[in-house]
Amino acid sequence: MEIEHRLRDSISAEPLPPTESAEILILRARSENGSIDSLASDQRSLHIIDDFPEKKRAEDELNEQVESLLLDKVDNGDKLATFQLAQFYFEQDDYKRSLIYYEKIKDTDPQAQFQLGVMYHDGLGTTADHEKGHEYMLKVANNLHSSNQHLIHVAQYNVGRSHFEGCGVKQSDTEAERWWLLAANDGHPKASIKAQTALGMYYCREESLDYKKVTCSSSKAWFPLGYNART
Fold first, then answer.
1. Radius of gyration of the chain (CA)
2. Distance between CA atoms of residues 58 and 172, nearest Å
3. Are 223 and 215 in contact, with CB atoms under 8 Å apart?
4. pLDDT value at position 219?
5. Which of 11, 91, 217, 225 has the fewest C-beta atoms under 10 angstroms from its C-beta?
6. Rounded to whole angstroms, how far apart are CA atoms 214 and 225?
7. Cβ-count burial of 1 within 10 angstroms (0-12 exposed, 13-18 middle, 19+ buried)?
8. Residue of 143, 141, 151, 150 lying closest to 175 (CA atoms)
9. What is each CA distance from 129 to 61, 71, 87, 170, in whole angstroms?
10. Tens digit of pLDDT for each residue in 145-187?
11. Number of C-alpha atoms within 13 angstroms, CB side, residue 44?
């Protein structure tokens, strides 16, 4: 039972892999207008401001510039800027506006689909809809296009997690294992570490105990992790 509890406690969702920060976005946008030097100076100054109210004011000013620049690009039909604006709002915890812009590109942008999967699962900016969240995450997990490589394994892990918990989809240990094996990708360092760890614990639990896999000495790095979790 202890392993079961540890497994359930350890399988928190994988977030979207890191994207460009607001600072980088505004640096790029300003550079297109030939004023990157002044902004770089603004950024350096921001890091050495000791007065909290003044630093907060400067950060708010920069955020306003980011929002304005991205809104202009979105108005001109820039789909990348649409994702960046949605992500900007998401990172500001403005989930309702974030959802609006993710929805605009949900049919063509896997990163937007991933975030919609998270938001519908967790009820961020909308009423929680686990089935809809699972459907969006499944789209990303099944999208094998080369441009989607940075998302596939984290999405596969999340799909496996949904099956294991029976959240938005019928509970199935078999499906959870299948998706986690895909996400773990034979222990590849660029695959999902959470999937590798979850598999180690999964093979140590009473219901799915498999000593051959736990003690395997191959490249499957998650097995020793699972074995250690058992002790």
1. 21
2. 50
3. yes
4. 40
5. 217
6. 9
7. exposed
8. 141
9. 35, 29, 20, 14
10. 999 999 999 999 999 999 999 999 999 999 999 999 999 987 7
11. 6
Among residues 69, 189, 190, 216, which one has the least CA distance to residue 200? 216
DSSP at 218: S
What ranges in the chain are assigned the alpha helix state H? 2-10, 22-32, 36-48, 52-75, 79-91, 95-104, 110-122, 130-141, 149-165, 173-184, 193-202, 211-214, 222-229
As to burial, measured by CB atoms within 10 angstroms (0-12 exposed, 13-18 middle, 19+ buried), residue 126 is middle
* pTM of structure: 0.80
CB 118 within 8 A of CB 124: yes
Angle ∠(24,32,97) on CA atoms, nearest 5: 55
Q: Can you read off the two tokens belonging to residue 136?
A: 């969006």
Amino acid identity of residue 205, one-letter, is R
pLDDT digits over 7-33, tens only? Answer: 665 567 888 887 765 555 555 555 555
Kindly state the tokens that stand for 124.
């961020």
Helix 22-32 to helix 52-75 angle, to the nearest 10 degrees? Answer: 60
Residue whose pair of structure tokens reads 């959470």 in the numeric block = 194
